[in-house]
Amino acid sequence: MQFTKLEIPDVVLIEPRRLEDFRGYFMEVFHEKVFRTHVADVHFVQDNEAMSTAIGTVRGLHFQKPPAAHGKLVRVLNGAVYDVAVDIRDGSPFFGKHVGLMLDASSAKMLWIPPGFAHGYCTLKSDSIVAYKITDFYSAEHDAGIVWNDPDLGINWPVTSNDAILSDKDRLLPTFTNIPSLFTFQENLIEKTEDPYKIQVNS
Questions:
Q1: 62 catalytic, yes or no?
Q2: 43 flagged as catalytic
Q3: pTM
Q4: How confident is the model at residue 198 (pLDDT cuts 50, 70, 90)?
């Protein structure tokens, strides 16, 4: 596997090695020891999957508040999405900044998004399927988010506000400046849920 730190170094792009022959291909998409060595020492507790029928479907920007904060390992099983992670950690040199890139099924690249980030994506192809592993269980009580098209974030989404397809819930999310202070840069966020978290990205 290849691991690449992005503009916000705690967000890591992971590219599995694909072995192909006349039958098709084989690849490892997750290996606990390798992940802990090169990315983060975490324990995944839940796998989620979402299928979006139409191009221009936006899901996000979502996060869970402490003590149920979680990291995500995101991959696309079918189609393609523009995937975004926004740093919402107070004191971070990247506070309010984001990384955005395309993830698609053909490349099989994955994105690690640690706690302290809001996450969302926009579908680029119909019937796109996104799967992600998370480090803490879903909690409706701690579910939170930021409105996807907040101009203060400056995200260059591949769809206009008029054309985007969103849930009513996501349309009503607060702006970035209206969310409370929940995360602190370099704070051991998952430790609050008795799940140790330590970034160990190789240079």
A1: yes
A2: no
A3: 0.87
A4: very low
